[in-house]
Amino acid sequence: MAVTLDGKLVVAVSSRALFDFEEENHLFESSDDRAYMQLQLQRLEQAARPGVAFPLVKKLLAFNQQDQHRVEVVILSRNDPVSGLRVFRSATSAGLELQRGVFTRGAPPYRYLNALHANLFLSVNEDDVRSALNAGFPAARVYPQSIKAAEQYPHEIRIAFDGDAVLFSDEAERVFQRDGLPEFQRHEHDHKGRPLPPGPFQPLLKALHELQQTSADAPMRIRTALVTARSAPAHERAIRTLMDWHIVVDEAMFLGGLDKAAFLREFAPDFFFDDQTRHCDSAASVVPTGHVSAGIANGG
Questions:
Q1: Residue 60: burial class (beta carbons within 10 Å; 0-12, 13-18, 19+)
Q2: Hey, what CATH class is 150-298 in?
Q3: Which of 24, 85, 119, 290 counts the most CB atoms within 10 A of its CB?
Q4: If you write DSSP's letter for every residue of 143-183 in order, what string do you get?
Q5: Which residues, in sequence order, are CB contacts of 114 under 8 Å at separation 6+?
Q6: Could you tell me the fold of the domain covering 9-142?
């Protein structure tokens, strides 16, 4: 029987998102890829420190039991194949069972997301993230300096999503940007019965929901939150949209423009996804954060 990833949650992650290669990357940026490759080869036996996405990946892999392989994590990296040796050795040293990786030595790796049927792509490279989003894949630029918070809930995967331009399309955000808050509130109240179109991360939320439904025997659970600047009465359309999708989130925070960081600190997600850099900059000081460079706020 042919090997396939069908029916699995597939997460593609760059080597810099999974491991802390910031020191090595400084050499790459100040020199060339040959010096970078040489340094990685010299450090082949030295396991890299965990990166921002490491706790999330470790928890996701806990869904894989001896008789049931539900999650596939694939390294998708601009690194060269030689540097890839260190990535896999670091994964083995850390107890991560990773089997697959694609290393492109500087070429854009996002084009392999289609072959992988990826549900999520995490990378530090802005161009790769934009290309992935444009190709229709949930993708986010990881903030390498993000604070890791996974230790608080070792048996739960916690993921927080912004609403407009992340879970939902930026249809309503465009009204806000063009006409201001009062017109936005009026527009959303008048259209509360019409579901918002899906945003770039709706497929990931749906995949996580399905994973939860089919993994009652797994030692890990999933808890999701909607963390949005919306407030009443614009909250109703967001909730009704999720209901129309037959997707349940565990928590919803309608903050009406309050800074999200304090609330995210309390929820302690393994990752938070937002389309606006000002929210990401604030969130990264308390939790792992990914910027979704989609929608009108990002020139879309």
A1: buried
A2: alpha beta
A3: 290
A4: -TTPPP-GGG-TTEEEEEE-TBTTTB-SHHHHHHHHH-HHH
A5: 135
A6: Rossmann fold (3.40.50)
CATH 3.40.50.1000 domain position(s) in the chain: 9-142
Indicate which residue of 20, 33, 80, 162 is catalytic: 162
How confident is the model over 4-27, as pLDDT tens digits? Answer: 888 899 999 999 999 988 877 776
**Burial group, residue 234, by CB count within 10 angstroms (0-12, 13-18, 19+):** buried
Q: What is the pLDDT of residues 107-149, one digit of tens each?
A: 999 999 999 999 999 999 999 999 999 999 999 999 988 877 6
Instruction: Specify whether 80 is catalytic.
Output: no
pTM over 0.90: yes
Q: Which of 119, 122, 120, 176 is nearest to 295 (CA)?
A: 176
Q: Tokens at residue 25, please? A: 């990357």
Tell me, what DSSP letter sits at residue 297?
G
In this structure, are strands 289-291 and 139-142 parallel, antiparallel, or unpaired? antiparallel
The answer to whether residues 111 and 66 touch, using CB atoms and an 8 Å cutoff, is no
Q: What radius of gyration, in Å, describes the C-alpha atoms of the chain?
A: 19
Q: Residue 234 corresponds to which amino acid?
A: A
Contact 94, 50 (CB under 8 A): yes
